[in-house]
Design brief:
Elements: H1 33-43, H2 64-73, H3 85-101, E1 111-115, H4 118-139, E2 148-152, H5 157-165, E3 169-173, E4 195-201, H6 213-227, E5 233-236, H7 244-247, E6 260-266, E7 278-282, E8 294-298, E9 301-305, H8 315-352, E10 356-361, E11 367-372, H9 382-391, E12 398-400, E13 409-414, H10 421-439
Parallel strand pairs: 2-3, 2-4, 4-5, 5-6
Antiparallel strand pairs: 1-7, 6-7, 8-9, 10-11, 11-13, 12-13
Helix pairs in contact: 2-8, 3-8, 4-5, 8-10, 9-10
EC number: 4.1.1.15
GO molecular function, one term: glutamate decarboxylase activity
Catalytic activity: L-glutamate + H(+) = 4-aminobutanoate + CO2
């Protein structure tokens, strides 16, 4: 008897499942939704386990209430502020909360926005710096050609994109063994009248360390006293701006430092939200040139908007507000402290192994990095260890450092909410086991390893 209803056919024998799933052209006919779901679901089974991805800073876990809220709101478009005025209002609540966390001097004279992620937020911060510099130069009757932006060689790639896309010369302060962080040294050699600003990293992606904001500001004060150049600062707090307010509340890095004009962060990193949402806040309205802001209709009036993206999800903004309400200051502190405790546990364990020496230990953001001790072995390298851990399911990247340290290879672990102490103990056991395996080799590994992995 011929079956008339495809739904009655056994699973994996239906049209689509019984043939190839590698569609590079749209199929001629439709298929059952269950069949289409299974094909896509099975294809993604080859992805890594997100919870075991210790390369990414991006959040991989939220609770069931957040999942429910996400499902309720995934059809809302953040750009449609007139159609979704409540979501627009919640966006403003969020950046005002961040302005308060980051010690904006006047909570009534502040402006911010959500973005699709911290990379877009960085570009908005850079655009504001460039436009302010252009206005000042035109007012003084000077040329607006050849703007430059100063940053550490350890910046995230989005800053290279910004300089490329928006015609700004990128001037690096190279990291070195003597100065592994940009600390103000050498700034006087690269600052000039065309400098639109200095970017300081609150959480270097290579190592997790904070660059010393106050030292950089002090050096810029010295430069201004000698040259008259008043150079503003932007803080790239993609990770650290959602950690420092809770774990290092007395550390001065934010709007308490007068040169800091803008701060960005990633809501989907230590902001504890699913990807993708980012945030940027300016210390006052004057810091964001008005000619970069567009007015949109909102609740019978107008609302300012400043973004590179147009249509984008509104659900993550609601999830950020949910996190703020659900956790409060105490909850964020508890979660970030738990992540840091795991990082310190793991870094201590790695540091005890004869093969390694720590570069950072997770005492800034919950991230740490290590390298092979010089001369320890000629049989294997950190790429081999990364490969061995990947066999066990762990994604732990190995990659070269930047600047004058580019000849040094390191490994890094990002400890996020969801990496429990139990999982950390399993990981530490596997690191010990695989290191012992590699140390027992009598001959060098026959291949160079899997090579540098994506670590930003």
């Amino acid at each position: 008897m011929v079956m008339q209803d495809e739904a009655l056919e056994p699973t994996f024998t239906r049209e689509g499942e019984a043939t190839t799933a590698r569609y590079t052209r749209i199929p001629e006919g439709a298929m059952l939704p269950d069949t289409a779901y299974r094909i896509v679901r099975d294809e993604t089974m080859l992805d890594g386990n997100a919870r075991l991805n210790l390369a990414t800073f991006v959040g991989t876990w939220m609770d069931e209430h957040a999942d429910r809220l996400y499902k309720d709101a995934f059809d809302k478009n953040m750009i449609d502020k007139d159609e979704y005025p409540a979501t627009a209002a919640i966006e403003e609540y969020c950046w005002r909360i961040l302005a308060d966390l980051w010690n904006a001097p006047d909570r009534t004279d502040v402006i911010g926005t959500s973005t699709i992620g911290s990379s877009e937020a960085c570009m908005l911060g850079g655009l504001a710096l460039k436009r302010r510099w252009q206005h000042a130069r035109r007012a003084a009757g000077k040329s607006t050609e050849k703007p430059n932006l100063i940053m550490s060689s350890a910046v995230q790639v989005c800053w290279e994109k910004f300089c490329n896309y928006f015609d700004v010369e990128m001037r690096f302060i190279d990291t070195s063994d003597e100065h592994p962080l940009m600390d103000g040294t050498g700034l006087e050699d690269v600052v000039d009248e065309n400098t639109i600003g200095v970017v300081v990293l609150m959480g270097v992606t290579y190592t997790g360390a904070y660059e010393p904001v106050t030292k950089v500001a002090a050096k810029l004060d010295e430069i201004q006293a000698k040259t008259g150049l008043d150079i503003p600062m932007h803080i790239d707090g993609a990770s650290g701006a959602m950690v420092a307010p809770f774990l290092q509340p007395d550390l001065e890095w934010d709007f308490r430092v007068k040169r800091v004009q803008s701060i960005n962060t990633s809501g989907h990193k230590y902001g504890l939200v699913y990807p993708g949402v980012g945030w940027i806040v300016w210390r006052n309205v004057a810091a964001l040139p008005d000619d970069l802001v567009f007015k949109v209709s909102y609740l019978g009036g107008s609302m300012p908007t400043f973004a590179l993206n147009f249509s984008r999800p509104g659900a993550q903004v609601l999830l950020q507000y949910y996190r703020f309400l659900r956790l409060g200051r105490d909850g964020y502190t508890a979660i970030q402290q738990a992540s840091q405790d795991v990082a310190r546990y793991l870094s201590h364990g790695v540091g005890e192994l004869d093969a390694f020496e720590l570069i950072t230990d997770g005492s800034d953001i919950p991230v740490f990095a290590w390298r092979l001790k010089p001369g320890h072995t000629d049989k294997w390298n950190l790429y081999h260890l990364s490969e061995r851990l990947r066999i066990r399911g762990w994604l732990v990247p190995a990659y070269p450092l930047s600047g004058k340290q580019a000849d040094q290879t390191v490994m890094r672990i990002v400890c996020r909410n969801g990496l429990s102490r139990d999982l950390a103990e399993d990981l530490m056991r596997d690191i010990r086991t695989e290191t012992a395996y590699l140390d027992a080799l009598e001959q060098p590994m026959p291949h160079p390893g899997i090579g540098p992995t994506f670590h930003h």
